[in-house]
Amino acid sequence: MTKEPDVAEARKISPAVKLGLELGPVVAFFVAYLKLKGKTFTIGGTDYDGFILVTACFIPLLLICTGILWKLTGKLSKMQIMTAVLVVVFGGLSVWLNDERFFKMKPTLIYLIFGGLLGIGLLRGQSWLKLVMEEALPIQHEGWMILTRRLCFFFLGLAVLNEVIWRTQSTETWVYFKTFGLTAAIFLFFITQNKVFRDYGIEEDKDAPVEK
C-alpha cells in the first residue's frame, strides 16, 4: 500500500521565498515612494500626490503576494489575514478620499488589536500568543505569560508611537519609521527576551524512550 505524502511537508517552502513574499510589498512601497515623493499626478481630473499613488499600487501587490503565499503553504496566519484586510480598508479609504491619514492610521489599529487581544487572554489567565507561536518557541507556561504580558505592552506602545510619528512628523519620516523603525523594534524586542527563552525553554529529551 502506497503511503500518502505528508501534506505539511509538501507545503513547506523556501524561507527566502517566504520572506520575499512577506517583505517584498513593503520594500516595493518604500522604493516607489522615494521615487515618486513630491510629485503630483492628475487622474480623472483629480490630483494625487506620490504617496497616494504608491498606496494604490501597494494594495493589490500585497494581496497578490499574500495569495501566492497561501497557495504555496496552504495556510495564512491570523496576523497576515488581519493585515491584508486592514490594508485594503485603510489603504482603500486613503485612495478613495485622497487622504493619506487613513493609511498612516493602519499600524496604530493593527497594534491596538494585537495588544488588546493579548490583554484579553491575560485577563483570562491564558497566553493567546502561545496558541500562535508554540511550535516555534517551546517554552514553559510561566515563560509564555511573561512574554505575552511584555508583548502586550510593547504593541500598545508601538500604537502610541505610530500616532505620535504620523501626527507630528513629515510623511517621509513616517515612511522611514514604518519601513525600518517598526521592523527593527519588533526584532529588538525578541532579541531582548533571550533571558525568558533561556530560563523557561523546554529542551527535547533525545534519550527518552519512544512509546510503542
Can you describe what's shown?
It is found in: Cell inner membrane. Plays a role in cell envelope biogenesis, maintenance of cell envelope integrity and membrane homeostasis. The chain is mostly helical. The protein is 73% helix and 4% strand. The protein contains 9 helices and 2 strands, in the order ααββααααααα. Helix 2 runs antiparallel to helix 8 and helix 4 runs antiparallel to helix 5. It is globular and about 60 Å long.
Q: Topology, pairings included?
A:
Elements: H1 7-10, H2 15-36, E1 40-43, E2 46-49, H3 50-73, H4 78-97, H5 101-123, H6 128-133, H7 141-168, H8 171-191, H9 194-200
Antiparallel strand pairs: 1-2
Helix pairs in contact: 2-3, 2-8, 3-4, 4-5, 5-7, 7-8, 7-9
Summarize the structure.
The protein has helices at 7-10, 15-36, 50-73, 78-97, 101-123, 128-133, 141-168, 171-191, 194-200; strands at residues 40-43, 46-49. The chain has 212 residues and is mainly α. A two-stranded antiparallel ribbon has the order 1-2.
